Each structure stands twice: as structure tokens, then as C-alpha cells.
Input
Amino acid sequence: MIVLDPAHGGADSGARGETLVEKDAVLQMARSVRAELERHGFRVVLTRNDDSNPTYDGRAAAANAYRDAIFITLHISSTGTAGTVRAYYDQFGAPPPVAAATNSKASNSPPGGLVLWDEAQRPYLDSSHRLADLIQGELAQSFSGSPPISSGVPVRAMRSVAAPAVAVEISSVATPTPDLLMASATPLGAAIARAIALYRVTGGAR
Amino acid sequence: MPRATKIVIAVLVVAVVIGLISFRGLRRRMQRLAETPAADEKARHEVLAPPISTPTDVTVKAKIFWAAGSDRIAPVEVQLPLSADPVERSRQLLHKLTVDPPTPGQRTIPADATVLGFYILPDGTAIADFSEALSSEMPSGILSEEMAVNSIAQTLGNNVPALRRLKILIHGQEVDTLAGNVDLTGFFELNPPAAAAPTPAAKSQH
Output
């Protein structure tokens, strides 16, 4: 199951351009990406399909309800070269010294045991990193100027997801050609679909 | 023509002339403000947070991490009087980072953001307490927020060797995210001990 998360919503508009507002544009884009993923044979659910703003925990719970989910959170940036796309995997910040000593055994342990809700992504960091690199590789081919490899950033929406999770952010709401940006949803969906297929074929985590 | 009508017309003419003169002056002032936004920003900031000088200031070559294009940060070497005291030194660096980007396009954090407090714990944990503007005026997006956090972390990490990790607070409070995306509940690694693996906050320049 692919859990597709259009970021923001409701009172949280996200990035704002002259004509585009992230929460609306990203929902429209998510619907196109869903159609493209379904065309490739994937089952897809959206964390929101209207102008609502589920909590971060609610979005994570949508993914955590499935056994073999993949969580993709979609964003549109305020900045960046127009038409480029970036994939991010979650990166937990440095723990304070006391917590570091306490958590050293638990960190990055394989999925299956009990994990803290706030650190549910931690056991999946390697899987998420691998998936993010595959997605970024496909994006770099479809969207000229995009970086060749993904980046690790502590993205809040992924912290509590107990599944491989990747944030995909396209630049940007400030584009002078909003129609072109919205038209990129189909190649975006196709790139994500190819990467997920490759991820599944090659066995997920490194 | 009755005398009263003449008086009314005369008063109206005088009012119109005064209005025109005031309008021209107002327009000139508006033009001046539009022409010098950077200088105005700097002047406003210097009222909100005046430059810091200490008795131990020595002019050194500091590396300040500003935006280099729309999707990455890079160090710029500047001659800067810096204190021997790590707290004051950190405040001076953050002041420079905020107030004085070489060009408006190199700005990574909002012009109105100020450092309300800066503390260093005995274990090398730095706590930077920023005003609300850091969050409320930050353009939302993973890329822009990542660049902002990394510019702060890299600037401190490269110029204040005593710092080990960084915690960012907004108006004295821990917040979930900077502007809806990047997680601020954790710590960002600055100068990890040689044995520890670096985190992306320390190595990524996106």
C-alpha cells in the first residue's frame, strides 16, 4: 500500500506564491500522482482528500495501519530552481548526551520490537534512505537540474511513520508558470512508481 | 457670486494645493523606502538587536554560511570582530548572519528574526532562543527551512569550536517545526567528537 500524503491543509497553507498555495496545489498534484501510481498497479490511499489538516500523528497513523506500507509525503517549496525536485529521508537530530547513552541499544534496531511513537521512523531509516535515493535517481532523469542523490533532513511528517518514508518536494510555488508545475504531476508519479517498483524488486532495505 | 461661495471655493483650492504638496512628499518618501529595503531592514534590525561588542573582541576571518543560489548554502569569509567568550561570540555570529548578508538573495533567515537568548550548557549544548519572526516570517518548505537551520548550525559550528550540538527555541519554547516542515524538537550536531559519526546537520550544505 502506498500512503500518499499531500502536505499541510486547512488553516496551514504551507508555501504561498503569487497564484499558487501549497496546500491546494499539492492536493491536486497528489490526485494525479495517485492516478499514475494506480496505473502502475499500486494500491494508494491519500492522508487527506479535501482541505483538512490531519495532525502529524494522524498522517503517520494512516501509514502505520498497514503492514507493508510506503509513505510518500508530497510538498511544494517556496524556493529552489523551478522544475527541480528533491527527495528527503528522515534524519533524527543528535540526541542529548544522557539520551544518547540510553538510546544507543535501541537505535536503528530492526523493525518488529516495540518502538516509541515519536521515534517510529528510526528502525526504517536505512530503508527510507535507500528508497529516497531510488526516487531521487528517477527524478533526476525526469526533472533536469534535480540533485542525483537524496538528502537527510529531520522532516516532522515522517518521524512517527513505522514504514519506509520519503518526502518529495518540487520547486516551487513561486514559479512563473504554474500550469507547467501542475503538469509535472504525471511524470512525478511515474518516477515515484518506477522507483518503488525497483525498491520492491531489490528487496527494500540495504 | 455670493461671498460665502467664494470663501468655500477658496478653502477648497487651498486644501487641494496642500493635499498635492503632501502627496508629492509622501510619494517621494515611499520611493526612497522602496529603493533602500536592505538598508531599512538593517536599520530596523539594529534597533531591535544592536551589534554586540565585548572587551575581548579580536578581528578574525569568520566563515558565515549564506545562500549560494536558491538551493544551497556556502561559506563566505568575512573579517569580523569576535569575542573570546563563546556565548557572546555566537551572538555576534548570528547577528552578522541575520543582519548583513552580502546581497538580499543570500539571506537564509528572516530579516526581523533576532536572538533573544543564547546559552551554552557544560556539555557543549548550545541553546539559541530566536524571536517569533524566525518561524512566522520563514518561507515554508523543506528546502528553505533546511537552508535556514543549516546556515545557523554551520556558522556556529565552524566558528565556535566549544559547541557540540544546537537546540533552537522560538520565543523560549520548544516548537514542533520551524515553518511547518523541519523538525525542531531534536538537536543539531555542530562539532561532533572525532569518534562519533557526523549527522547531516553537520555535513549537508543543502
